[in-house]
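QA checklist item 7 of 12: single-chain prediction sanity check.
[x] sequence parsed
[x] length recorded as 285
[x] structure emitted
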Amino acid sequence: MLEDLKGKTALVTGAGKRTGIGYGIAKKLAGLGSHVIVADLGNLAREAGQVPTGTASEMEDIAREFTSQFGRRALAVSVDVTDPDSIEQMVKAIQGQFERIDVLCNNAGASFGVPNTVVYYDEQAWMKTIDVNLLNPFIAATLECLTQMAGAKPKRQRVFVKTDPQMHGDICGIIGMTNGITGSCVVSFPDALAKRIVARFLGENEATISAAMVEDGIGEVANMVAGGAKRKFTETPYRFDISTPTVVHGEPVKLFNPADTVAIACEFTADPAWTETFLIEIALK
């Protein structure tokens, strides 16, 4: 038994189906002495054509199996990894049973609308697949930054394929990706929202925030998103370089992607009290 895993608490997403890789990972961790949290969709809504996932009863059965076979504590918890609210509910459920998480295995991914051929692949299903496997590290890093640094309460409004070059708002942080995956992540804000966020960062009144301060503040947001996403991607199979972000400010702001690039965008409100929205756009080749 590896002593450094004995008594640790491990969270494995996508672990609720005995035919899946997540189950194998969770079982191995339990066998090595870890307490295990089995996370999967459970009885949450799932989409037609989605790869089979663990039901609540299957997950509970797996948790009982680990406790019986290995003498480890095990908890089954439902989560939709594409939904920030669902992730928050999962965290609350875990906090009621465990003091901390020592090992996090982000095994859950998705391929929606399969099996199918490329010719007939459903666009919305493909968008959701991209959202889970590539957008989420950038989304999570952005939301963590705005929540922790500005006390914001972001809420996702929509996900869509973006076909026009016009950026959302007046100021954006552009993060480039090369060597493995080529493309960019752009986080863009209207001036009014950017000023609100930077004022929160600095603990200042909005009226005292200059254009230069806004640019510096959004630059810091982009730096934090790049760093946070880079750390999150170390837990995935994706390997590529992330460049130092660039801030572009002015109206209109346009970003022209190569013709063979697909851009997926997620729009968020930053706070229930604010009407403005910001956009996270991922363009990949």
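[x] summary fact logged: The chain has a mean pLDDT of 83.
[ ] second reviewer sign-off
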